[in-house]
Amino acid sequence: MKFRLKATCCMITLMSLLFGAGSSALISITFETSLRQEKIAAQKSYRMILNTLQVVNRMEEWTDEKDISKILKQLSAQGSYWAALRLYTQATQTGSVYSEGTMAAHFIDLTGKIDTTHLACTIISAPDGANASYYLQLSSSFSVDHTVYYLDAAYDITSIYDARRWQQELYQNIFAILLAACAFFSYVLAYFLTRPLARLSKASREIACGNYDFRSAIKGSDEVSAVSRDFDLMADHLQQSMEELKDAMERQNRFVENFTHELKTPMTSIIGYADLLRSETLSKEDQTDAAGYIFSESRRLERLSLKLIDIFVMEHDTLKLSKASAAELADSLTRHLKSGLAQEQICLECDYEPGYCMLDTDLFGSLLVNLIENARKALPQGGTICVKTTMTPQGCLVTVTDNGKGIPKDSLAHITEAFYRVDRARSREQGGAGLGLTLCAEIAHLHHGTIDFNSAPEHGTTVTVELKGGRP
């Protein structure tokens, strides 16, 4: 059963209990109050008859029972509210001294409960067509010349029972109307209250089916709206995580693909030349060329393995920084590289700001070598590489600029991914494996820093690495 139907049933049940109990109590109290008032009025009238009979008895002597009957008849004519009267003695109980009204035949014998000082009262009923008539029977006794007379009187109280019956019928009609109105309005209210939950449920199903862009977007300031906002926030984080996971899987797939390709090409050549050497059908010169190619490709695989190991170790190791001068380290390193770069018609310009910061000297050297090596590959026809170090409040800034062929804009987002090459053919000819900038990005990360690329095709590239290891 849906929640809105449950809420409707609860409202109907609650209304039925409260309205039923309240109305029943009100009808019952009204009936009892009216009945008590009628009893008091009937008892006063009845006592008036008894007192009248006793006064007349003292004022004049009754000769026979006909005199008493005559007086009762006169009193009965004066009060139309008496439906029946009956006068009898013990000797004439089966045949009354005086009897008037059809209800006299329905009187109950109350002689055992009354005397000359006590009055008995009970309710009697008699069939009257479709409905019964109700009367209040009052019984008492009085003495005349040592003879005890019993007087029964019937007081009509049918109107009280009719009023109660009318109230009950009115209650049933009102109850039916209120029940229908309560069912309608409670369902409408429950519908509007639960409609946001239906929207939230739809959002859950949509996201479960893969529609991660769907949001509940419930506006308001109540608890359901707060749950909706939390749900949408969770969906945003989930979508972001899914996108990040998707990107990670794509990078992993590219990594496996590139790694497999990097291994397949040299391994195929190594196996091929090794098989030629084993067949002993090559000349001395061809054997030397084959062995040299096997050696060069093996060294390339070795460098590839070492760089992968360095990246793996850095990702799972804790870095210990020490006080060092970035200018001195960079100057010592570039002095050894200038002669080799000069042979390729590459000019190395340096600008170092003195100062000390917290660094890992080995990783700093590896960072600088890889940046310069990457810039060298961008200058196949010669050019200029500028290396600059600048001190910052958090550490130092390393900038390497070249005026080479540059990097296409669509490649900048992937430049630090493992095995990614802007120009695959040229990089492979130059011995690159696409891991240098990946290593640089990891070194910057270990120093709590960042690496940034600013490049334009045919205008060169500027790589800026900010190391935030701190200042001593």
Any descriptors?
rod-shaped, alpha+beta, five-stranded antiparallel sheet, single chain, 472 residues
Write a compact overview of the structure shown:
The protein has helices spanning 3-59, 65-78, 158-208, 223-279, 284-315, 326-343, 361-377, 424-429, 436-446, and strands spanning 82-88, 98-100, 120-128, 131-144, 147-156, 322-325, 346-352, 356-359, 383-392, 395-402, 450-456, 460-467.
Spatial separation of the terminal alpha carbons: 70 Å
SSE pattern, N- to C-terminal:
HHEEEEEHHHEHEEHEEHHEE
How are the strands of the biggest sheet laid out side by side? 2-1-5-4-3
Strand content: 15-25%
Profile the largest sheet. Answer: 5 strands, antiparallel
Shape: rod-shaped
**DSSP summary, beta strand count:** 12
Give the helix proportion (percent range): 55-70%
Structural class based on helices, strands and sheet pairing: alpha+beta
Q: Total helix count?
A: 9
Mean of all residue-level pLDDT scores: 80
Radius of gyration: 57 Å
Q: Segments where pLDDT lies below 50 for 5+ residues?
A: 424-432
